[in-house]
Amino acid sequence: MRLTAPLLALCLSVLPAMSSACGGSFSSFVDGLKAEARAKGHGAAVVDQFFAPVRQDPRVLKADRSQGVFQRPFLDFSQRLISADRVKRGQSNARKYDAVFNRIEQQYGVDRGVLLAFWAFETDYGGFQGDFNTANALVTLAHDCRRPELFRPQVFAALELFEQGDFDPRTTTGAWAGEIGMVQMLPRDIIENGVDGDGDGKVSLKTSATDALMSGGAMLQSLGWRAGEPWIQEVSVPQRFDWSQSGLTVVKPTSEWAALGVKPRNGPLQNQLPAALILPQGHKGPAFLAYPNFNVYFEWNQSFTYVLTAAYFATRLQGAPVYNAGNPDAGLSGAQTKELQRKLQARGHDVGKVDGILGAKTRAAVQTEQKRLGLPADAWPTPALLARL
């Protein structure tokens, strides 16, 4: 699911200057949406018909606030999501839709493993696409003041789909965050990147795997996917290494990583491509080089753990071996990570929201404190580091 979380002040600054931007009574907020829709040129009768069944859904807000799964470390998270059955079904679907994937690779330059991994994680290969009413979900999240800048435009995109006959506010369902179909795309993405892959005259992301996969490929290309290039590659790193060189902000050509002793576990390093060394659970755990295409994953989802797991699974589906898990130091619980984030804030670090999730800002702050304390600066927080702080 493609989610972002900017500061509320920034959110409000880019919204229309109207009292119903977010918050307040739900009915007044919907009235504001209807007025804005009419101002955008949508007919009054269509607007009334679209918004008539819309209701606030408290289940959506509960789901939005309950994403504790992203507090799990990479090894735990990836082992939960990547089962032998998912690998087997992914390989089976690769064969079943071989001709479709050939078209996608030729037209959009996106490897089949990438889309298979998203298809698997988002809806279990189309098996469960979500049962939340999409119109209710989008309007509920637009009304909520946490991320209105993301969801308010999607309400009007859903209205456009309704006018085209491709959306029913009463019956269209999907994920709690408003995504629809087998690879879970938001309404604006469907409008901009939806593809009628099977040639039946409709873009049917819920019922046509061909349409869903082609549309996913088109969207990834639009987000900047570089054809013919890898996304991640598992590597081994010498025991004696400057671990402060790890992290997504330190980018070097692969030749420089090779000169520092970084070696691929499968296949050659991609000659002279820029790459970053990522250590999801510190210098004693698995290690990967992240190439430019890896950054495109963050346009699909903002969770580092989800992104790395999806990227790794894509390589598995294309023949890469099971990663070397290593023997990483014990990490922190969600409660301990919140404590860590508060301590880092007290030292002047910007860690974003205190949420118990080891995100990019928290990792950067951890790495800075590890350097200060003379510890291996691998951005992996441990109980020992928490005690030192």
TrEMBL record:
Name of a matching Pfam family: SLT_2
Domain Transglycosylase SLT residue range list: 26-314
GO biological process: peptidoglycan catabolic process
Superkingdom to which the source organism belongs: Bacteria
Protein's name according to its UniProt entry: Lytic murein transglycosylase
Keywords associated with the record: Signal
Endpoints of the signal sequence: 1-21
Residue ranges constituting the Peptidoglycan binding-like domain according to the UniProt record: 333-389
Any one GO MF annotation of this record: peptidoglycan lytic transglycosylase activity
PANTHER family (alphabetical): LYTIC MUREIN TRANSGLYCOSYLASE (PTHR30163:SF8), MEMBRANE-BOUND LYTIC MUREIN TRANSGLYCOSYLASE B (PTHR30163)
